[in-house]
Specification:
TIM Barrel, 34% helix, two-stranded antiparallel ribbon, 333 residues
Length: 333
């Protein structure tokens, strides 16, 4: 598998990364733990070197399962996790009580909790998951520098941060990445975030490469979600590409993408991942899977898409898609 650097940081990654959000039980519907672990191991055995998770995925469960998946191969991978996002443990609907909290004392405590769940003594890349607007961004950044000195993390970054927020963060910590949603149905980062990241020697971690399932090619116009699936509300981080008013139109677009993919000997997920990687500012395209078959299919996204093919896809999605995030639209943070 091809490799890329996080800008000029010296931190290297496989171009496809294993996205651990679906491992968070209670968030992406039901799955088998052993199958999910096997999916992660299949990814590793076929060249994926970066594994991404977060404390809030499954309210800690996602990190626990990732730690199990990486047992015995931990030293061979770039392990990424995210924090400063809290949940109320005794609330039956924990998702409704999830808030950003980057209080330095609590952040350092949470890093220790993540290390325990992940069964490791260091994290290669730790990200502030969402902006905390209740305090200066220098506070969590200084805490991350403290964690670096203690040997608990090796690199720091952010997720879902605007340009202005990154500028403030960089005054206190040399962040190497911004992890942000980017896929065929959401091009919002192209306007401001990506140019800033590139010009400052950082790299983009792109999450939602498969549009959180829409680009798996398995959805129909009547797709529904269970109560344990965050996608049931129809909103996708500020856009509504699978909301009830847009789902049928976008499923029709995906069917046209299926034909384009087949013309190039690829599946829709493989087309979608290659589209993300066609942007040189992207260091790694994250793709989640909870079965070895899904993981194997995602691996086929490592191929070079021509500018002509990318334009064909862009023209189709921007011309016929509904609820699509276009360059210049505001990104909710």
């Amino acid at each position: 598998m091809r490799k890329r650097m996080f800008g000029t940081s010296g931190l290297e990654t496989s171009v496809i990364g294993y996205g651990g959000w679906p491992m968070g039980r209670g968030m992406y519907g039901d799955f088998d733990d052993d199958e999910a672990v096997a999916a992660a191991r299949t990814s590793y055995e076929n060249g994926i070197t970066l594994f991404d998770t977060a404390a809030v995925y499954g309210w800690g469960y996602g990190e626990e399962l990732m730690g199990k998946a990486l047992k015995g191969i931990r030293e061979n991978v770039v392990l990424v996790t995210k924090g400063a996002r809290e949940w109320v443990r005794d609330n039956p609907d924990r998702r409704a009580a999830t808030v950003s909290n980057s209080d330095p004392k609590r952040l350092l405590e949470s890093i220790d909790e993540s290390l325990q769940r992940l069964q490791t003594d260091y994290i290669d890349l730790f990200l502030i998951h969402w902006p905390d607007h209740n305090r200066a961004f220098s506070e969590p950044m200084e805490a991350l520098e403290q964690a670096k000195k203690a040997g608990k993390i090796r690199n720091s970054g952010v997720s879902n941060f605007s340009v202005k927020m990154m500028e403030e963060c960089r005054q206190s910590s040399p962040i190497v990445t911004n992890q942000i949603g980017y896929h065929i149905f959401d091009r919002r980062p192209e306007a401001e975030v990506m140019p800033f990241v590139k010009s400052n020697g950082m790299g983009i971690m792109a999450y939602g490469s498969l549009s959180h399932g829409l680009l798996t090619g398995t959805w129909g116009p009547d797709k529904t979600f269970g109560d344990d699936d965050w996608r049931r509300g129809g909103a996708n981080f500020g856009i509504k590409s699978w909301g009830p008013e847009n789902l049928a139109a976008n499923v029709a677009v995906v069917e046209k993408l299926r034909v384009i993919a087949a013309d190039h000997g690829k599946t829709i997920p493989q087309l979608a991942i290659a589209w993300v990687l066609a942007n040189e500012t992207v260091s790694v395209a994250l793709a989640g899977s909870v079965t070895p078959a899904e993981a194997t299919e995602n691996l086929g996204g490592d191929w070079q898409m021509s500018p002509e093919l990318k334009k064909q896809i862009d023209d189709l999605v921007l011309g016929e898609g509904s609820g699509v995030g276009t360059p210049g639209m505001a990104i909710a943070t």
